[in-house]
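Good morning C.,

I know you're traveling, so I'll keep this short. The sequence:
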Amino acid sequence: MKNTPSSVLLKPSEVCEILKCSRRTLYRIRQDMAIPFFKVRGRVMYKLKDVEAYIESCKETA
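The tokens, ready to paste straight into the viewer:
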């Protein structure tokens, strides 16, 4: 199976690295339901495409 952006899964630490934020900030973003997440065997995981969509939604227009 080829890793496409829709199939790439990220751990919270990887999302924090992409967003350049703390785990606490990521938890707050998650609580606000701004980035969809799911659990696999009790571990929180994120889809790369959802993280990228969140980044796009945060961009300000000039």
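Safe travels,
E.
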